[in-house]
Amino acid sequence: MKNFATLIRNRRSTRHFTDQALTPEQAESLLKAALMAPSSRGRAPWYFVAVDDRERLRGLAQCKPHGADFLAECSLAVAVLANPMESDVWEEDAAIAAIYMQLQAEDLGLGSCWCQICNRETADGGSAADYVRQLLDIPYQLEVVAIIGFGHKAQTQPPIDESNLAWEKIFINRCTLMDSPTDEGKEPHA
Predict the structure, then answer these.
(1) Distance set, CA 154 to CA 21, 72, 112 (Å)
(2) How far apart are CA 84 and CA 98, in angstroms?
(3) What is the spatial distance between Cα 190 and Cα 188, in angstroms, rounded to a whole number?
(4) Which of 72, 86, 163, 179 is the most exposed place for a label (fewest CB within 10 A)?
(5) Three-class SS of residue 51?
(6) pLDDT digits over 127-153, tens only?
(7) 112 to each of 56, 77, 134, how far by Cα in Å?
């Protein structure tokens, strides 16, 4: 592994992938990373559906009108699911597991991209989650949080430019956002 600072600086969303398939070992590493993620009170309310079938990947790419096209090109897509009955913070726990997979992908030299499903609509106004649920035979008690696409990067992007970090969004000891000159006339929060 690269050092963690380098890893997070280099991880960028990849929306174009080569035709090269992932090895079984690479796929296992990604899924193992998800299963190793922390969760509230150790409940691990997440579930995952790994998809490498080209026809299903093309189907997943149709789950919403914007931001899902890349799924048709990826080698592996992982639908990130969670059971709300197992934890009150199921969405957060599932999101942590998803980013663990994305960080593992970067460490393996692979690309990845998040496709938001929860609270999104299909092109005809239906639920994107219901579309994915039907396509992948997901039981009704599981919520579809996101789909993460993985594959070999067809292009590389420069690392994150640290000079553009929004340090103004960091506060020490208390949030002074309301004290800013752009919020004149508003009461500051104590």
Answers:
(1) 12, 14, 11
(2) 17
(3) 6
(4) 163
(5) strand
(6) 999 999 999 999 999 999 999 999 999
(7) 18, 9, 24
